[in-house]
# Entry
Amino acid sequence: MFSIGALSRETGVKVPTIRYYEQMGLIDAPARTEGNQRRYGHSELERLGFIKHARDLGFSIEAIQSLIELQDHPDRSCAEANAIAAEQLVDVRAKIERLKRLEGELARISDGCSGDGTSGKCYVLASLANHNFCESEH
# Structure
């Protein structure tokens, strides 16, 4: 059995986040000691590892809830899990494209400023103040 602190150390998930996951129903409410301390078993450790890995991959809480529901019913088709993962991949690729546009615009703004002048004539500050200085939508 693990205390909430030990569970946190084992998984790298902060204690308030573990409590939040309990409130959201992602992990079951743990058994409690006579002193009302939470006690988690190996299944909660595994579930929390699953949730952490899914969060690290950018899955939303709603997607994780759906994935857990599928995991809890091993006889169901994995088509829904695949669809959720494919949707996440589309979202990640869109974010990468947006980040590439941001990178290009920031590089252009940064390159447009030598850093030798005054802030009153700084190209970086002028670009941030006026979106018309941007070459692309970001």
Summary: Residues 79-111 form the longest helix (33 residues). The longest strand covers residues 31-32. The chain is about 60% helix and 5% strand. The mean pLDDT is 92.
